[in-house]
């Protein structure tokens, strides 16, 4: 591997045409985009001065679209997108944070077995069952700590804080703090 490909000096024009990169973005590792398969136009939007650092990965399905606001810093976040994930401006998202808009497998055991057969190397992907996806929306100036998990359908309001290790399956109001598994939300009291 070329050292430039792990320190942000590589040619960003080598990325797919449906990735829109704003002014003065920093993309540390080309490997962050290896699982980007979106066919949407655009499939990924990085706002001005967005920073995509270390082990951030974009696992974006053909039907998925991810938007990252300006001045947002991603320090090893994992995006799993079937439909839509939107991150506002000025956010900080830490290591091993997973943001997923879909379960990516059926919950029912029999359906899961059929799905595993369909996606196996010798399987027929056309036989996959539809997987429900619900958009994830994260407002502006949100801080998400190490190892948090943001699940499908969640909206996080502007200025909220998500503590490290939190598992979030419900909305968080602007300025509130969520912590724990399952998350408990403490509203911001003026």
Structural account:
The protein is mostly beta strands. It has one helix and 19 strands. A hairpin with a 4-residue loop joins strand 18 and strand 19. The N and C termini lie far apart (52 Å). The model has no long low-confidence stretch (mean pLDDT 92).
Looking across the biggest beta sheet, what order are the strands in?
Answer: 2-4-7-10-13-16-18-19
Structural class by helix and strand composition: mainly beta
Number of helices: 1
What is the name of the CATH architecture?
A: 3 Solenoid
Return Rg in Å: 17 Å
Beta-strand proportion? 25-35%
Low-confidence stretches: none
Q: What kind of sheet is the major sheet?
A: 8 strands, mixed
Write down the CATH class. Mainly Beta
Number of strands: 19
Mean pLDDT: 92
Helix fraction bin:
under 10%
Give the full name of the CATH homologous superfamily.
Answer: Hexapeptide repeat proteins
CATH topology: UDP N-Acetylglucosamine Acyltransferase, domain 1
Note the overall shape. Answer: globular
Nutshell version of this structure?
By secondary structure, this protein is mostly beta strands. Helix content is 6%, strand content 28%. The protein contains one helix and 19 strands.
What tags apply to this protein structure?
UDP N-Acetylglucosamine Acyltransferase, domain 1; eight-stranded mixed beta sheet; 6% helix; six-stranded parallel beta sheet; 190 residues; 19 strands; mainly beta; single chain
Question: Strands, helices and their partners?
Answer:
Blueprint: E1 19-21, E2 26-27, E3 44-46, E4 51-53, E5 57-60, E6 65-68, E7 73-75, E8 78-81, E9 84-87, E10 92-93, E11 98-100, H1 109-119, E12 136-138, E13 143-144, E14 149-150, E15 155-156, E16 161-162, E17 167-168, E18 177-179, E19 184-186
């Amino acid at each position: 591997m070329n050292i430039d490909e792990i320190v942000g000096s590589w040619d960003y024009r080598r990325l797919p045409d449906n990735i829109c990169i704003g002014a003065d973005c920093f993309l540390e590792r080309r490997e962050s985009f290896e699982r980007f398969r979106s066919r949407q136009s655009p499939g990924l939007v990085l706002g001005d001065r967005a920073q995509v650092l270390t082990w951030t990965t974009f696992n974006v399905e053909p039907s998925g679209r991810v938007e990252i606001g300006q001045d947002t810093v991603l320090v090893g976040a994992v995006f799993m997108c079937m439909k839509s994930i939107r991150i506002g401006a000025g956010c900080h998202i830490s290591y091993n944070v997973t943001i997923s808009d879909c379960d990516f497998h059926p919950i029912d055991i029999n359906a899961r077995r059929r799905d595993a057969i369909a996606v196996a190397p010798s399987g027929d992907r056309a036989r996959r069952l539809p997987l429900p996806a619900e958009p994830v929306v994260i407002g502006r100036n949100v801080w998400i700590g190490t190892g948090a998990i943001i699940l499908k359908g969640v909206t996080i309001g502007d200025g909220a804080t998500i503590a490290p290790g939190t598992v979030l399956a419900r909305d968080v109001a602007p300025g509130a703090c969520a912590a724990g598994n399952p998350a408990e939300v403490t509203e911001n009291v003026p």
